[in-house]
Amino acid sequence: MIVPAFNHHAVWAIYKSELSRALRTVWQSLITPVITTSLYFVVFGTAIGSRMGEVGGVEYGAFIVPGLIMLTLFTESIFNAAFGIYFPKFTGTIYEVLSAPVSHFEIVLAYVGAAATKSVVLGLVILATASFFVDLPIHHPVAMLAFLVLIATSFCLFGFIIGIASNNFEQMQIIPMLVVTPLTFLGGAFYSIDMLPGVWRDIAYFNPVVYLISGFRWSFFSKGDVDVEISLLATFAFLLICLAIVGWIFKTGYRLKT
Length: 258
Prior knowledge:
Order of helices and strands: HHEEHHHHHHHH
Radius of gyration: 19 Å
Low-confidence stretches: none
Number of domains: 1
């Protein structure tokens, strides 16, 4: 059996094309999260944080940083990947990509890799901005970067699926705005699940976003709402589910060949 060679030229061409589109609006892409992060710290960190003091032994201003990064990372990862694959569908250039000597794995690697790169950079920009407002310890920097890359990749795959399934730009915004954002706010982005009453705490554990935020927060403070092993397992499970769906899409040609 002959295994086809990895077409790194094609992957690099698509990857570079996707990144160049982001670089054309680099200032808007960077200034917006900086301003948004600053506003969150003014409202939550200063106004509310001064009244709350500490959460689980962590200053509230520092406590919200992982959740704030995740809030932006989720939505931006989905949008970047969804738009990246939807635009070729919209213009019809997707057929040129599908007919080129490029495997499905290479197509996904290029589009999702470019979107994940932009999301990780954005997350690091927010982290750097937050460091100007609070003293932010990172107890496990390697784990923090690993969670950041893993979660960004997972949600970029999720966005890739949304971009393929969407028929118009409005449909691409439904899940990020009406599903992901509310789940993030209810998933402990700005508070600890332990602060909820008993029944609401039990319900919160059915929210998958809780496990992603908890694992990422653990990498900063060595504390989370759930064990880090469970958070890591949940993150990998989400990644594998997205990979399986993407594999099915290319196998059946769903919304790609019509």
